[in-house]
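Journal club side-thread
Mid-discussion, someone asked how the predicted structure for our own chain would compare to the paper's figures. Pasting it here so we can look after the session.
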Amino acid sequence: MPRADRICFSGAVYHIIHRGNNKQNIFVDDTDRWHLLKLFLEAKKKFECLIHCYALMHNHFHATIETPNAIPVSKIMQQVGGSYAAYFNKRHDKKGHLFQGRFKDIIVDKENYLLELSRYVHLNPVKAGFSIRPEEHKWSSYGVYIGEHKDALVTTSMVLSYFDMGNKEAAEKEYKKFVESKLSEISSDRDWLKENLIRKRFLGSRDFFNNFKEKKDQALLSKKFY
């Protein structure tokens, strides 16, 4: 089966999921986790992309990336994933593939779904049983969003702008309430992300998908007839 083309345009937001090969762990210790975040920061500076949120699990990670300059997300992930795999194998004397094939990229309707997606990412460690509360899992961007610490890697402004409280501290408190309002509803048999995907690749409304498809079809027609 041929691979689907990577979709690339200015201002695109992608939710990235990258899993270990055969579900193996991709982190042995905190040194590994810090190294991956360092690679993301280097990629952010090099490609001038934005990292809206992330969560590092045991055998995979979540990262939501925006590309204002239409840099292909594949270039970003090739640098991050390729460098990390080489580092991991060298440090731990491993051979073979660390990751399970290509990363999964989901196109996000940032106007209507980014806020809810950030909550999903930050509650993911709780759902997986890593912690009781999202702030207890230090390997996510949640601590940055609620003002516990600063991190040059994470851009919180777009998500926090949904809470127009007049100042950042007030918005952080409201965001904390927003995320933790779903704590009692976390269930292992439901996955918000999967339930809201369209054709397994788009996270948004049906109108968002149809509008995107219409633009893509018009571009293909232009290539065919001109």
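Post-session note: The helical segments are 30-47, 73-91, 110-127, 142-145, 157-160, 168-180, 192-196, 206-225.
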